[in-house]
Structures are given as C-alpha cells and as structure tokens.
Design goal:
This protein has 161 residues and is an all-alpha fold. It has two domains: 73 residues, no CATH class; 64 residues. Helix content is 34%, strand content 0%. It has four helices and no strands. It binds zinc ion (ZN) (2 copies). One zinc ion binds next to loops.
Length: 161
C-alpha cells in the first residue's frame, strides 16, 4: 500500500519531508543509498526488490510533487508547509524570525534580528524599516522555496540560487 502521508529517508530511516531531495538528519540524497523503505521505514536488504512490510519497490521512489508535473507545487497536509503570507508578516515585524522557526537558518535569523535592533539606533526611523522590508521579501521568497521542497543553506537569501 502506497502511503500518502509519510516519507522515510532511504539512508537512515528517519521520517522526513516527502518533497526534500536531501535528508535533514543525515544529508544523503534520496534514492542513492537504500537501507530503509521510503514508504514505511522498514529495513531493506541490499538485494531486496520489494518491501516485505508494505509491498512497494523501495528503489522506485514515488514522491509527491517530484518529477512529472511542472505545475504548481503540491501542498501536503503536513506541517512542513510554510504559509508565505504569515512568513512575510512575521518577517516584516521581526526580520529573521521566519529563518529561525521555518527555514532552519539559526545564525542568519539571529544576525537579522540583531541588525534590526541595531538599525533602530544607527539610522532612526529608516534603519529598522530597511531591515524589515528586506526581512519580509526574504521570508516570502524562501517560504515559496521551502514549499517547493528545497533545502536551504544556513546563509541562503532570496537572491541566492
Ligand atoms: Zn537520513
Ligand atoms: Zn515498506
């Protein structure tokens, strides 16, 4: 039975975002090493063609939103989907906070919050707004990319590829 909700890393077996190309626990590209069934997380022997627990072919990984349709990203019901509007609003009032809570960019998030606070003192009125508008654009763009299953680096900004 194909499982529509969950996805497991084929290398370490940890549950992960179905649309992500790389595991956030072990960093291995999906489908490269098959130690675990992507569909149910059971262990797979090197020569095994079918998962004995759920019956899928562990080497033919089916992922929602992956290859096939170039259409709009498929939004899973999972909590890994970031609401771009919410991210933009939070990014506007507390630049860097969306990076901290959704994008896994701890250092960048903290640096942006510090820049925002410093802006208040260095360039009164204009300073914080520059950082806030920057934070809102960054949050909006990166939320879209996270929803597309992209894994962001620590220092990915909206202009980075
Ligand atoms: Zn893994
Ligand atoms: Zn299985």
């Amino acid at each position: 039975m194909e499982n529509s909700q969950n996805y497991y890393c084929t290398n370490c077996g940890k549950p992960m975002n179905k649309q992500a190309e790389f595991c956030t626990s072990c960093g291995v590209k999906q489908g490269k090493v098959i130690n675990y069934c992507y569909n149910c997380g059971s262990t797979i022997e090197p020569n095994q063609e079918i998962c004995l627990t759920c019956g899928v072919n562990p080497r033919k990984i089916k992922r929602t939103g992956a290859a096939g349709s170039a259409a709009a990203p498929v939004r899973a019901a999972g909590s890994s989907v970031v609401n771009p509007i919410l991210a933009t609003i939070i990014g506007l009032f507390i630049p860097g906070l969306p990076s901290l809570i959704w994008f896994g960019q701890k250092t960048k998030g903290i640096v942006m919050i510090i820049a925002f606070l410093l802006g208040i003192f260095i360039i009164p009125i204009a300073g914080p707004w520059i950082v806030a508008i920057f934070g809102a654009i960054d949050a909006y763009q990166l939320a879209g990319r996270v929803n597309n299953g992209e894994t962001l680096d620590e220092w990915t900004f909206f202009w980075n590829k």
